[in-house]
Specification:
The protein is α+β, with helices and mostly antiparallel strands. 17% of the residues lie in helices and 32% in strands. It has two helices and nine strands. It has a nine-stranded antiparallel beta sheet. The radius of gyration is 16 Å and the shape is globular.
Length: 195
C-alpha cells in the first residue's frame, strides 16, 4: 500500500529542481535542542509516540510521508505556500541548534478531529498552501549531503529569478531501515515567482 503524502501539483520542471504548488495540510510537530544529525532521531520518538496512541483519544494514526525538519523559528512570520515532507531546520541566535521536526497528518483529519496530544511537546497546526522549489536526491541523512543539495537548489532557484521565502525544509520519505541508495530525500523552499 502506498504511503500518503501531501497533495501538490507540479507547476514546472527545471533541470535542477521541480516547482510545486502544495495544498494546505496538517502537521504534528515538536522542537528539539540537538545538532542536525541528532535532531531527527530525538524528535522522531516524540512524534511517533503521539501517532502510536499517546493522545487523549488513544487513537493510532497511520504514518505518512515525508518527515520534515527545519531550523526552529525559521518558518514563523509571513504566511506562504507550503511544501511537504518531514522537515528539519536550525534555530538562529540561541547559541545552540534547535530544529522543528514534523509529521504530515493524514488528509482524513481536520484540526478539530485530530486527537489531542498528551505530550505538551507535540503541537498540531495547518501548513498553508505554498509554492515550493524542490530538489530530490538519494543517500545518507547527513548534514553534508543536505547542505550540498541545499546549495544546488538555492543556486538554481536564484538563477531562474525566483525569490526565496523563508528557511529550507529537509524532507525524508523512507524508514531508517531503507538502504541509503534507495532513500528519497528532498530539500525544498518556499518561493515567489519572478515579476
Amino acid at each position: 500500500m502506498a504511503t500518503e503524502e501531501p497533495s501538490y501539483r507540479v507547476v514546472e520542471t527545471f533541470p535542477a529542481f521541480e516547482l510545486r504548488e502544495y495544498a494546505p495540510y496538517l502537521v504534528a510537530e515538536t522542537t528539539v535542542d540537538a545538532g542536525f544529525d541528532k535532531a531527527g532521531n530525538r524528535a522522531f520518538g516524540i512524534l511517533a509516540d503521539y501517532i502510536f496512541g499517546n493522545n487523549q483519544a488513544r487513537k493510532k494514526i497511520e504514518m505518512t510521508a515525508p518527515v520534515n525538519q527545519q531550523p526552529a523559528g525559521a518558518s514563523k512570520g509571513e504566511q506562504i505556500e507550503m511544501t511537504a515532507p518531514v522537515t528539519q531546520r536550525p534555530a538562529t541566535g540561541t547559541g545552540s541548534e534547535r530544529y522543528v521536526l514534523s509529521f504530515v497528518m493524514p488528509r482524513r483529519f481536520t484540526l478539530a478531529t485530530l486527537p489531542t496530544p498528551n505530550d505538551p511537546r507535540v503541537t498540531l497546526r495547518e501548513e498553508p498552501a505554498r509554492l515550493m522549489a524542490v530538489r530530490g536526491y538519494s543517500g545518507r541523512w547527513t548534514r553534508s549531503n543536505y547542505r550540498r543539495e541545499e546549495a544546488r537548489l538555492f543556486e538554481a532557484v536564484r538563477a531562474r529569478g525566483f525569490e526565496v521565502l523563508g528557511a529550507p525544509v529537509y524532507a525524508r520519505y523512507n524508514s531508517p531501515f531503507s538502504l541509503p541508495v534507495m532513500r528519497r530525500n528532498e530539500v525544498m523552499v518556499a518561493v515567489r515567482r519572478p515579476e
